[in-house]
Amino acid sequence: MEDVKGEKVTKETGLWLEEAAAPYKVFKAAGLDVTIASLSGGEVPVDAGSKQGDFYTEDCKAFDEGAATKGLLSSTKKLADLAKNIKSYDAIYLAGGFGTIGDFKGSEELTSIITKAFEEGVIVAAVCHGPVGLLGVKEGKESALKGMAVTGFSSAEEKAVGYSEKNSVQAEMEKLGAVYTCAAEPFHPHVVTAEKNGAICVTGQNPASSKGAAEKVVELIKKKKTPPPTTGGGVIILCTNTAKIELEDVKGETVTKDTGVWLEEAAAPYKVFKDGGLEVTVASLSGGEVPVDAASKQGDFYTEDCKAFEEGEATKGLLSSTPKLSELAKNLKSYDAIFLAGGFGTIGDFKGSKDLAAILAQAFKEGVIVGAVCHGPIGLVGVEEEGKESALKGMAVTGFSSAEEKAVGYSDKNSVQAEMEKVGAVYSCADAPFKSHVVTAEKDGKVCVTGQNPASSKGAAEKVLELIKKKNAKAE
């Protein structure tokens, strides 16, 4: 290998033990049969560095000392023999270690087997230096990694351990056109899941990502084996059409804000509902394009769910042309739930909308579950019961708090909290701003789930999904 000085050095290497031991434990705990193999069969050497200090984790010790595992690396099967019936396996997981540069990289045999795995629907995963085994895989005449979201041992990590980054996993992946990402800091866990033309690939950046990558593989295997539940007509996620709005700031001055949907508040629920086997329709009050608040695509606000929503083949165009809610509402009873995504834009069109209030009143009346998150619950404020009293009076709810409104620079006079309290709702929030908080309420047959802020998006959607499953189970 070449070190950071550009000199050739010989390195004693092999498997990095944690990258086999941690996945082994995850897979066995999930009830899966696990076979450890190698390209040549026989003994698998272990990098001595992986058995020193903190690198030698409890999982490593258990693997080395366990009665069922302590001899597994001394006599492994050849991958080629197992690959004769590769379709019978759920996944193939490429453990790392610098040794993979010597046999995984450039192996036509491994490339052929991974290609076959992708074609047969077998999940392919790799961690740290293991992803070098993916470099030769092609789709037609171009790399299968081109345009695929991936990770692996980074150039910064390569330099940090004393080796040149010229041919790092990151560099090799980027040469092929892969969309490489890594953690904000070297040696922090980072796992990427990608699906491209039916091929499913999970990659982990470094040893610290071994467990997470394996857990993701287990999740995908379970999802693949579990048929979607029968859940009726699915969910409508309602988003704002408002791209610009005037607000009062904390100084009492009127300011114009570029806004739209807060992306996580649509993306996270979308994933929850789809993973739960539901049909999901993204709609808006006016139909057409849903603007996205640019701030929701910056830094930590731009979550993995957001990225997947924007880049996924099935989702990346959903916000550009949405159906009108009023059209869907003609058959509202066929839906399981309607979920109001937030963003300051909702103050411009959800708030005060008689059409939306009427549709939500209809939803409550017909037993359709209503969910809303952050500023989305502003759409509930105008809903009235037949006696002209607010449907929220006496109902337990939450939404973006007055404290959170002030924290982001705006007056709390007309916050979601203030508006809800004006109509007699029983408002509650987390013990600190921006923490997740979800409230479920049932009043006179109306079922309503509200989430306080972006951090509550996933939890609110999960609660809606739970209620849908419970409702449908009773109906069967």
TrEMBL record:
Residues 19-182, 264-463 form the DJ-1/PfpI domain. It comes from the Eukaryota. InterPro entries: Class_I_gatase-like, DJ-1/PfpI, Prot/Nucl_acid_deglycase. One of its GO terms (molecular function) is glyoxalase III activity. The keyword Zinc does not apply. One of its GO terms (cellular component) is cytoplasm. One of its GO terms (biological process) is methylglyoxal catabolic process to D-lactate via S-lactoyl-glutathione. Keywords: Lyase, Stress response. Belongs to the peptidase C56 family. HSP31-like subfamily. This is DJ-1/PfpI domain-containing protein. It comes from Bigelowiella natans (Pedinomonas minutissima).
